[in-house]
Amino acid sequence: MWVPHILLAPLRALPLPKEVSMEHLILLTGIVLISCALFDKIFGRTGVPGLFLFILLGMLFGSDGLLKIPFDNYVHAGNLCSAALVLIMFYGGLGTNLKAARPVLKESLFLSCAGTLMTAALVGLFGVKILGLPLLEGMLLGSVICSTDAASVFSILRSQKMNLKYGTASLLELESGSNDPFSYMATVVVLALMQGADLGPWAMVRMLALQVLIGLAMGVGAAWAVKKLLLRLHLEEETLTDALLLGTGLLTYALSNGLAGNGYLSVYMAGILIGNSRIPGKGACIRFFDNLTGLMQMLLFFLLGLLAFPSRLPAVALPALGTALFLTFVARPAAVALVLGPLRCPLNQIGFVSFAGMRGAASIAFAILAISGGAQLSYDLYHMVFFIVLFSILVQGTLIPPAARKLDMIDDTEDVMATFNDYTREMPVQFVRCILRKDHPWEGKPLAAITMPPGSLAAAVIRQGQEILPKGDTVLQEGDEIILCGLEGGSAESSGFYQVRLSPRDEWTGQKLADLSLHDELILLIRRGEKVLIPSGDTVLRAGDELVAAQKRP
Asked: Domain 47-419's class?
């Protein structure tokens, strides 16, 4: 592959002493980050997935590459991978819109649990029967690569803006975020058996149940605690909220692991519960984690490329390619069909979900875990898995968009971005605050008797520090602070309100506003296509409507 001279010139001049100082480490880190950005900018136009470019750059830096930086420490690499996966999984939960995913929640959970373990078993049998591996070594290979990669799936869905039928984007998003814990548990069990642990069926079930229960309990507890804390503290600086949530994710993982729970399950559960709660500054926090995990993915895939030895890939190419083909076209489709078929999912959806099961950093991280854990293997597990991940990123990552079109899975009435909690769309709305002074014409009058400026309405009334959702019989008083909503510019999120985009499956779709069970919520505006509507009780909501709503703050 041709590499611009401007990239390699400073790299060849990089001093690389045997004992790397902090200055050299900082220098190297800076060059790596700049190189990743330039690589993605230069070669991203070719349609090659960005994650592959970061791996390739790591290989160029590595022992067999142009710079020949020696790095083969699986323990350090495993620790860094674990830290990165914690953040990626926490963000995966934080950014998942559970409301959008609710119609496909059952399918996603069955697929992440049963589908993942079926895939592991089938690949394990392939390793035993076709590759001639011992039973436990074959099952270890299956356990390591049975999960789909959240980072890769999120990247494809968001970058390609794939509007998919039947809520498939939410299904893939939820499955890829929740199946890593099951892959991890399967890997841990197989490693324990390989190291001579006396695990009978009941002992194995007990260990797995304990991991799941502790993991879920820690995730739920962490989410409850941080929500209470955020509502009490009223943090004004977004940075403080970011720090609090970042610390929550790391602490949850560490405590769960320390109590023999599944740390990955804990952080994902905590993330999804926090992300689907109405907490102050949530939108900004999710965008912070989006940027942070994007950077972590960049460094993580670079590290995985750095750890690889390209000279060792030809030796594993044939068995790895056979495993990749079996996984992509036999094991994954069989598992998906066995799970989604009885749930009466459409055939084109089953076909697409089968093909969209990408492998990525999680699989390589679990392979590193196995190697650093002292597993005695008859084959090169890391480079086998590395080859399979390269195949997945290059083949599946490139072909997923055309596969979606070929299988007739594109639906422009859906919006893939609405499956993420950080999705907001600018709307032509402006919020104006005015304070009722003594003898104001509105003082002592109910809102129903007040003539508002054309195209505006009262969005909220703040009285003695308490926010009141206004109704027609709300009587205004001296000192009240009125928030008026108009149609002139601005965004709902910037004023503390939130937006909802209705899908064809949403329970509100097709209903009149007057028939909705709204408690402390008020629908302020509706964007329908290019029109902005001031709603009334007779307004019928449609799929695709974007609602600007307000809720009474706790």
From this structure: mainly alpha
